[in-house]
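Co-fold these.
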Amino acid sequence: MTHAVKHHPGIPLLEQYVEGTLEADVALAVAAHIDLCPHCQQLCQDLAVEQGTQLQLMKPVDTQDSEPDWQTMIDSITAEPPLANPPRQHKGPITVQFKDKTFQVPRALARLVEQQTKWTQLGSIANNKLPAGDKRHVSLLYIDKDTAIPQHTHRGLEITLILSGAIVDEQGQYGVGDILINTPDDTHTPRTLPDQDCLCLSVLSAPLKFNKGITRLLNPLQHFFY
Ligand SMILES: [Zn+2]
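Predicted complex below.
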């Protein structure tokens, strides 16, 4: 990949990710970013080591009776019934299809992509809602080249991970692997480049709020994204 990832989730999110305390749909976007970002892969390894060291320090120093009861452990594992549907191993690239286009996406999205639904298209934007969302709505978003999404603010958290192409907004340009995190304070007008379409993963905790234009016309857009 020629593009160097410039926009990262930040240390607090990575810490929670490594701890396993991040909520599932946010963790999904962070995991997919990490797949694309050697910098954050290294940071996560370092954080895991650091957290491991802290756990070691917290352990009571008691060497008596510390031998694990292997036989009980093995018995309990073998007593469990085999899984009816063992998770499938994903070999080869994970791809997303939109019309005649094929996009390769991070391995972290494999299980979700398998469950993707139908694309809904509105002009030059298409949305594929994924069943991951618990508190938040997770979807794949395809935006054709030279397309602007009307200016909007956020009622909640908006996380966008670029999977192909690029997005430009008032803050700068975002390429493959870059993660944009917008909160209710942020207003932006994202658009694609004149000659390149874009695929991204979108995680939303509340519908977008469009600021400009005729509300009556933009209302269907809110349902479209959320
Ligand atoms: Zn990163």
